[in-house]
Amino acid sequence: MSYVTDLPSSWRAEDCSNLELLPFSQVRAQRQDGAHSLTPSNSQRLLSTRDSDGGGDTRRGGPMRGKRKIIFDRVHGQLVFPPVLCLFIDSPIVQRLRELKQLGTTSYVYPSATITRFEHSLGVSHLAMKFLKQILENHKADGGVPCALSSYEEEEITKDVWCVGIAGLCHDLGHGPLSHMFEEYVNTIRRREGKSEWCHEEASIRMLKRLWESKRDQLEDAGLQEADLQFVLLCMRGLAPNEPWPEQVVGRAPWKRFMVEIVANKRNDLDVDKLDYLQRDSLCCLGMPAVPTLDRIFLGACAAHVRHSESSSENQGDQEYVPLTAGREDEWQICYERKLYVTIEEVFLARARLHHIVYQHRVTRVVDQMLIDAFLLADPYFRVTHKERSLRLSETVDDVDFYTETGDWVVNAIANSTMPELLPAQTILANIKSRNLYSTIGFYSTSADKPSITAEKLLTYIKDQSFKKKLESWASENHGLASLVVLHVKITKAPVVRKDDDTNSTNPLSSIVFFNPTELGSVCEVRPVKGRVTFSCGVRNQNMFIFVSRMKCNEREREQLCNAWRSLSDDQKLDNAVPRSSLKRTGSTAREDSITRPLYSAEQRPRRQGDEGEALTFSQEESMGESLIPPPPPILQLGVYDNGRKRNRHV
């Protein structure tokens, strides 16, 4: 293969360093005014220069000054970041993410779950830029669809790649210490004070605006204007289906709507944020990535202007390809080749599995509650300082400068403080380190959003009056914390094997559009064939309520609580209630300790050839029917019921 190696003497060194070798057949050497000019075609520009990584461009006609960063990542290998993104990476607001654990208190169950939000944010930024470039390259290989791509200039490509990369890097800036439990703690305080609820997503927006303002001159030198900031913010927030496209605000044509789905996909939740944390969390907790490779998904993606199709449905094996229904049209969105249906399904099943055995682990939820209690007790006294001023920890969320100072370090700061007022909080933190955790009494699942039984009702079933009085008086002796607390988890069960005529479940893949690569203008929905037993991720919403005792109980007292729980659950006809003392650790510890329990015990579980290392055939699964449906999974919301009042928490 021939390559162009002789460059005109009129070229500057920086021009030469910005080129990579191209096959001669892809380069047009033209002689203009006696000088050579190498002009790769528009369809090759993105991959032929470092501008594909965002290293060049710009409004002022030259590459942005500065070096790109090459960072090794345990999940994705070598990550390349252009100088523009380095402006954000090398800033206190982004570097703060090094101090935040991605999985919060999960490390109390999985010791290797110590990855940081900084690692995750770098990974999301890398995947966002890679995904956009791959979608554009897929279109070039398939003939230049969409048509708008033919006039898509190099400078415009570079800016869009930068913007989705910045959105991926900054999407988690607003997270607080120890992940989601900090949000629950802050909102508990704000409700007491009559303030509006706080969420980390809006904090991320505020922090990016502050960061952008501090770098505005350098960003303008690189060609990034106010419209680009608004586009980055939109990529971080996401855009719901049928929500109007703000063309004047973001300065981009409607056909670029699909780019907003790369980092935060409000249409079907399949985005690079999810893909990165599934791979990263699975690798650090379970020792292997959730999905063998992401390249297959990226290579099969395209952007399409989805319109209603009048074509008839088509059957192929276990799937039925049907025309799009009304309301799914006239929007640019990311679509995938039909053959990727099973691969994408595996992504949702992997998410369900991780929620089941990692994110929703019983011990993780209990430690979360203990840390919330410790933070609540410390809040009136523990202060965060910045430039000779100080604020309570819960107040820092209203000031970007103070919030930038927060991190997981606050736990050790409280634990090691000499202030006598922090002793109650220090006692709880010491109990966590000593593994003296709150005791789980029992739990049950229901479709209702509120528990049918309360902690107060459970107290009435305790027969020992002296123990009952001890529980009732414990709060007055322990700074108002109730002796019993009900943890609320809103979960979505995702059975791996089910019949597809199950009307009580919804397949999340129904919101993803697929296409036939041999018919570029045809898109469709993919639905499993009715009545067949398939490996499907249909979902059902449920709520889980876990009863926990804050008060330290001896063996006899724990047995009284369990007996009261059994009697109460029998009277309430809670068939799926589980007393903690009846759980036997005969299987996987992580699986048994998850707050979402199997539909059968380890002893009741039917024997399968797959358990002996043999292949499990489809006919065997079909004959076993619903008895093989494994346990539920993921959570969408976490809340706490304390003294009859609900406190929501989004996860």
Automatic annotation (TrEMBL):
What SMART domains does the annotation carry? HDc
Q: Write down the PROSITE patterns for this protein, in alphabetical order.
A: HD
Could you tell me the superkingdom of the organism this chain comes from? Answer: Eukaryota
Query: GO molecular function terms here?
Result: dGTPase activity
What CDD domains does its record include? HDc
One annotated GO biological process: dGTP catabolic process
Q: Where is the composition biased (Polar residues)?
A: 38-47
What the entry lists under InterPro entries is as follows: dGTPase-like, HD/PDEase_dom, HD_domain
Record-annotated HD domain positions = 117-278
GO cellular component terms listed in the entry, alphabetical order: nucleus
Q: Which Gene3D superfamilies match?
A: Hypothetical protein af1432
Bias-annotated ranges (Basic and acidic residues): 48-60
Instruction: Write out the ranges of the annotated region (Disordered).
Output: 32-65, 576-651
This protein is called what?
SAM domain and HD domain, 1
State the species of origin. Strigomonas culicis
